[in-house]
Amino acid sequence: MDNLDEYLGGRIILTADLKPEVLQYLQSCGGKTVPTTFKKNDKLFCRRCLMKLDYLPIKLQYCRHCINLGKLPIDGQLLITPTTIGYPKQSDYLVWSGTLTANQKRGVRELLMAFEKHRDHLVWAVTGAGKTEMIFPLIEQVLKQGQRIAICSPRVDVCIELFPRIQKVFPNTTVGLFHGKSEESYQLTQIMLATVHQLIRFEEAFDVLVVDEVDSYPLAGNMMLHQAINKAKKKSGIIVYLSATPPKELLTQVRQQKISITRLYQRFHGHPLPEPHCHLLLKPIMFNRINPRLRMKLQHLIQNKQRFMLFFPQIPTMKSFAKQLIKLYPSLTFVDVSSKDDERLEKVQQFRDQRVQAILTTTILERGVTFKKITVIVLDAQAKEFSKTALIQIAGRAGRGSDSYDDEVHFYYQYYNQQIRLACSEIAYLNQQAKK
After folding, report:
1. Is the pLDDT of residue 1 over 60?
2. Terminus of the chain with fewer CB atoms < 10 Å: N or C?
3. Would you tell me the crossing angle of helices 344-352 and 156-169 to the nearest 10 degrees?
4. Quick one: DSSP state of residue 410?
5. The pLDDT value given to residue 2
6. 10 Å Cβ neighbour count for 302?
7. Which of these, 215, 260, 220, lies nearest to 392 by C-alpha position?
């Protein structure tokens, strides 16, 4: 028989994709078979992604919303696999020699209290506050109770960076990493790291769901993904949201006391967030190949062998800028990455390993990545692609190390607008709150 770990744990699987003997065995273990669709208020919905189905002008009707996870015909059957699974007990779950700050310890207490009370919780923490380290004790408590936890993010890069850190501190626990680009097939693990899209494949599977970067694209405003989060947790389970820039909807739930909250205004090393230096460019960034004011800054960084990140609002602008960099600074080593770059993960690793001096990027790297001793520069900061949230997150890439807390952040723009003003004022406000 096939490896059953490929199916267990609240997985939603089309029965037509299962061998008869596997289907029969999973049903005997408690798996339930349901139609691929259900009706509500005379409307037809997909059982996997919970989205309303629209009529297609073809003979075979299927759900278009979750087609990237496999075609789901409306007249098919789904198997929802068993979630009651026993995990081996361990003498040591968490193996970590680090220490938490007083603020982090307070946050841990509040997280564990939410877990005990089965209450959803928001951790509102500035970039670099040490959110990941704060969830270590929560994960440990989940494991001790023989339960299962999933840590999710909208961004593949975040999941990939977090995976080895979780593996290292929970060496005796099964940890899985699953995303659309993953080469490994699904296996049942007690800790699962995955992109939020993967949760569409699960129903009542997890006792605790940790959702990192809840305000990030493509999760923000995506009904299907938010429904997937709620569907994937058990009825008795909780959701923990992590964010440096939480959406208004979550803050409203906090005010209504529907969820509890932890606030951390200070980074783990105790130093303030780098506040951006703002520069008005009277001409476009590509004026005279590269704007002379900008060129002066780049020359200074290159001569001093200072590593830096350049953020662009659009891919074509980044590509044109990269060509000029090669012509003007042939000795400069750099990579450029975007959401359309198949080699993005490898290029990011090159920069992390200090094999190149600079990285050119779009907002794809606005969050979820950590580099030390870098200068962060945003070009055309007035562009619509750079929202207030994006600018705050980008600025948060700097100053993350205790030995490089004073990294510089620079915003270059052709006109000063509200998103720049709000981003700078919120960073200043968070620094003021940290002093109290």
Report:
1. no
2. C
3. 60
4. E
5. 61
6. 19
7. 215
How many C-beta atoms surround the C-beta of residue 74 within 10 A? Answer: 17
CA–CA–CA angle 261, 163, 214 (5° rounding): 35
Q: Which residue has the higher pLDDT, 381 or 215?
A: 381
- 23 is written with which tokens? 């289907």
Distance CA 420, CA 425 (A): 9
> Cα(367)–Cα(290) distance, rounded to whole angstroms?
27
Buried b (16+ CB within 10 A) or exposed e, 273-288: bbebebeebeeebeee
Q: In 3D, which of 307, 303, 310 has the Cα closest to residue 356?
A: 307
SS3 category, 137: helix
Q: Tell me the C-alpha distance between 192 and 174, whole Å.
A: 8
pLDDT by residue (tens digit) across 196-235? 999 999 999 999 999 998 888 778 888 999 999 999 999 9
Which residues, 6+ apart, have CB-to-CB distance to 315 below 8 Å?
Answer: 338, 340, 362
CB 184 within 8 A of CB 209: no
Question: Can you tell me which residue has the tokens 């919120």?
Answer: 426
For helices 136-144 and 102-116, give the axis angle rounded to 10 degrees: 30
The amino acid at residue 184 is: E
Residue whose C-alpha is closest to residue 69's, from 199, 220, 214: 199
Q: What is the DSSP string of 153-197?
A: ES-HHHHHHHHHHHHHHSTTS-EEEE-TT-SSPP---SEEEEEGG
The token duo for 352 is 């992390």
Rounded to whole angstroms, how far apart are CA atoms 81 and 12?
7
* Residue 65 DSSP class: T
Tokens representing 276 are 């951006």
Rounded distance between C-alpha atoms, residue 238 and residue 122, angstroms: 11
Contact 417, 347 (CB under 8 A): no
Q: What is the arithmetic mean of pLDDT over 128-144? A: 94
Q: Residues with Cβ < 8 Å from 265, sequence gap 6 or more?
A: 126, 430, 431, 433, 434
Identify the CA nearest to 239 among candidates 295, 292, 196, 185: 196
Rounded distance, CA 76 to CA 35, Å?
Answer: 6
| DSSP of 252-284 | HHHHTTSSEEEEE-S-TTSPPPPPPEEEE-SS-
Rounded to the nearest 10°, the torsion over CA 132, 225, 314, 277 is -40
